[in-house]
Amino acid sequence: YMNLLKCVRFCGELVMVLVYSILGPVVFNKPNRYVIFGPIIAFPLVLFPFMYCRAAVTEHTEVERKHAQVKVLSFKAFLVRQYRLVADYSMRTQVVNESEHVVTAYN
Question: Is there a contact between 107 and 69 (Cβ–Cβ < 8 Å)?
């Protein structure tokens, strides 16, 4: 939902640049510069198909990142709950190694 709002915001900004490019010369009595319309029209035409083709890969990567983040958080919650057991049975090195493994997988 938040990404949709960002997309709407950026589209609005692009529309406002286009409106300013059209109305600016009229309001400020300056000559029209039609060269500005090239990038305003070309960039969305190139980037939207790229975003469409890249959407599946981006979604898959985001899902993997979220799963790794959940693993890190659940492991840390486990450590907080089981701290006395880890300390009493001298398992700090194993827990530190496992923690490094989980965090490395996330990064």
Answer: no
Contact 71, 101 (CB under 8 A): no
pLDDT per position in the chain (107 positions), as tens? 778 898 899 889 988 988 888 888 888 888 888 888 888 888 889 988 998 899 999 999 999 999 999 998 998 898 888 887 777 777 788 888 888 888 888 88
- pTM for this predicted structure: 0.58
- Cα 102 to Cα 81: distance, rounded to the nearest angstrom: 17
Q: Do residues 67 and 33 touch, judged by C-beta distance below 8 A? A: no
DSSP codes joined into one string, 57-86: HHHHHHHHHHHHHHHHHHHHHHHHHTHHHH
- Rounded Cα distance between 84 and 70, Å, is 23
